[in-house]
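STRUCTURE:
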């Protein structure tokens, strides 16, 4: 069964223990607090609208980064994490442009730069353990488990504490769903999240657009042929009229010469 992480922003105290644990697990330096994900920190915690907001890769159910990567450096595992094969990356940065959550970052300061992002500690998950950030949270603001179980837990908290939470589990349906689920006491748009993500996976929308290309090309080709035929036909008619006019003038010319001689 697919795993997921539930982050309850109402419980986060901003201690940055998750950031420290992530840096230690992934060997990221310097060891200092981070407010946003970067090439040197796969997660960050920033105070916004009265809450401590943690940001990291959302691990989409149908990740756009994987769909646009031309070398297959990204892939979604059955367990939930979207993993990244650094050795395959060619640095095209399509994933950065495509991500609806603005997550992947580029190692601009490195001599051999690659893309970086949270992998949800896929190696620990595969071994039956919890991600490092979940293990480090001292107040249980993050919990890890089966996705369906966490969705039920999140909805149960909303029903039991209607005044404490907004009626939304962010990540339940956004862009087809994610493996990181969020709870908040204020609208997610006030925390910097986009509202226009929709419920369909973005790769599906891309495929639908691409699937229309043959029809568009065929119709466009027919239209261009029609334009060419009309233009070419006009040219042929004009040339034919010019030839007829030249022939008429040639036939009239001898008659004029005879009249002048007389």
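SEQUENCE:
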């Amino acid at each position: 069964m697919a795993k997921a992480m539930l982050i309850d922003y109402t419980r986060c105290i901003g201690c940055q223990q998750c950031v420290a644990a992530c840096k230690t697990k992934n060997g990221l330096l310097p060891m200092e607090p981070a407010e946003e994900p970067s090439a040197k920190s796969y997660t960050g915690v920033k105070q916004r609208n009265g809450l401590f907001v943690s940001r990291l890769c959302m691990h989409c159910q149908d990740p756009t980064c994987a769909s646009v990567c031309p070398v297959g450096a990204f892939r979604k595992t059955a367990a939930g994490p979207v993993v990244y094969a650094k050795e395959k990356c060619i640095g095209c940065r399509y994933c950065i442009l495509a991500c609806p959550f603005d997550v992947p970052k580029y190692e601009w300061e490195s001599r051999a730069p690659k893309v970086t992002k949270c992998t949800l500690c896929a190696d620990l998950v595969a071994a039956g353990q919890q991600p490092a950030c979940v293990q480090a949270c001292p107040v249980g603001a993050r919990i890890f488990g089966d996705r369906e179980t966490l969705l039920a837990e999140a909805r149960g908290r909303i029903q039991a504490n209607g005044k404490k939470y907004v009626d939304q589990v962010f990540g339940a349906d956004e862009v087809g769903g994610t493996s990181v689920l969020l709870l908040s006491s204020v609208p997610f748009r006030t925390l910097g999240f986009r509202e226009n993500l929709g419920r369909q996976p973005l790769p599906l929308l891309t495929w639908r657009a691409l699937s229309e290309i043959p029809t568009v090309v065929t119709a466009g080709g027919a239209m261009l042929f029609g334009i060419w035929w009309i233009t070419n036909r006009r040219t042929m008619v004009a040339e034919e009229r010019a030839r007829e006019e030249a022939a008429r003038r040639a036939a009239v010319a001898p008659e004029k010469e005879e009249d002048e001689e007389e």
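REMARK: The chain is about 40% helix and 15% strand.
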